[in-house]
Design a protein that fits this description.
By secondary structure, the protein is an alpha/beta fold. It is built from 14 helices and 15 strands. The protein starts with a strand and ends with a helix.
Length: 390
């Protein structure tokens, strides 16, 4: 039996979790070293490992000066450790200063030292001794692969990944047919106008709506869309019920098809461990922040989120989309998350891509999405970012 030790870092919980997944054996204990009392923040680890609280310990520094004064860190740690215990210590997380003190104290006990490099999916095992020429440091790939749900739970988020369907409702051929219509601008102005009316009045509808009602206006507040039948014909879209559109079909026509197209091409070319459409996330205790992720996938423990927009009317609206993607990453999904925007808007002068890049978001506009060679470069970049080892 051993104790697996992590420096608790709420900004990068994956490092601790993957260390535990790599080395935990039944009966092992977990020890978290925290700069403050954060027992509630380590709860996701207990939940994901199904461990009782008595197997998890926390050494915390409740006064701020205790977390950065070297001697106090050492005294606090030494008073809590057991000479008879074997410790496996992950030095990733926290400040470099606190890691130095932690390493110094554990060297006086029966300890092994590791460093989890999440960005490259590697764990380094180091021997701190006087010799730097005996090559006794080893590198081991992280074998475990997280699910989307695990990643979100580690970030302290509620989600509906496991409680709702998050897969396409139509075939890839259906998505491609509509994509080609937009790519070649085959739709008439009247068809674009009808799509806009559907988006304004029927997206998010809870009930099916007949084509006749849409054409005439389902109520006084809904503008008639007499071109609905012509729109479906131009798109080659055949409803399940020939006389009406279901709520999911209305959402599909007003943008959901593009999310499904992105989902399909990601699955086919990137081969993630898991991918999902329309995942809702929220922070417990907060009713103001309830966000939906258009397309989210995970590959080699790296989470990717793609915001999908068929069109963006103005640069101002585009900036809002970029700010939202950036805020999601910083506030909810962690710094290791990768953010993308896929859009059918053109970016001829690359100005929009530069704006997105400044905010840490990668833009794939129409000029890239419609060019197979350029899209393969995007897929290759995603695979490199995930650091999936062969």
């Amino acid at each position: 039996m051993k104790t697996l030790v992590n420096i608790f870092d709420p900004d990068e919980p994956s490092a601790a979790y993957l260390f535990l997944k790599q080395y935990y054996k039944a009966g092992d204990r977990l020890l978290f070293i925290s700069t403050r009392d954060q027992r509630e923040d380590v709860a996701p680890y207990a939940a994901l490992f199904h461990l009782p609280e008595e197997q998890i310990s926390i050494i915390s520094f409740r006064r701020s000066e205790d977390s950065y004064i070297y001697e106090r860190i050492c005294r606090r740690l030494r008073s809590q450790l057991d000479n008879a215990m074997e410790y496996w210590v992950n030095l990733a997380g926290g400040s470099r200063y606190s890691a130095l003190a932690i390493q110094h104290v554990f060297e006086q006990f029966h300890a092994r030292f590791f460093y989890v490099q999440t960005r490259e999916n590697l764990i380094v095992s180091s021997v701190f001794d006087d010799s730097i020429y005996d090559n006794d440091d080893t590198i081991e790939p992280i074998q475990y692969r997280m699910t989307i749900g695990e990643y979100l739970q580690l970030q302290g988020l509620r989600h509906d990944v496991d409680t709702r369907r998050h897969t396409p409702i139509r075939s890839f051929d259906d998505c491609c047919r509509i994509f080609e219509c937009f790519k070649a601008r085959r739709l008439t102005d009247a068809a674009y106008h009808t799509l806009e009316l559907l988006r304004i009045h029927y997206r998010g509808s809870r009930h099916a709506v007949t084509l006749a009602a849409i054409a005439k206006g389902a109520s006084r507040s809904k503008e008639p869309a007499p071109g609905i039948t012509a729109l479906l014909q131009q798109l080659g879209f055949v409803p399940r019920d020939p006389d009406r559109l279901s709520p999911d079909e209305l959402d599909y026509l007003t943008g959901g098809w593009f999310e499904e197209y992105v989902y399909y091409i990601i699955v086919r070319h990137v081969h993630p461990q898991q991918a999902a459409i329309g995942v809702r996330i929220s922070r417990p205790g907060s009713h103001q922040h309830n966000n939906e992720l258009d397309v989210v996938f995970i590959k080699a423990n790296t989470l990717f989120v793609v915001e999908c927009k068929t069109g963006v009317a103005t640069d101002h609206l585009f900036n809002e989309i970029v700010y939202k993607a950036c805020a999601l990453k910083e506030t909810f999904l962690g710094l290791s998350c990768r953010s993308y925007i896929f859009t059918l808007k053109n970016d001829h002068d690359h100005h929009l891509a530069q704006v997105a890049d400044i905010m840490g978001v990668t833009l794939c506009p129409k000029g890239i999405l419609t060019d197979p060679g350029k899209m393969h470069k995007v897929f290759d970049a995603i695979i490199r970012q995930s650091h999936e080892f062969k």
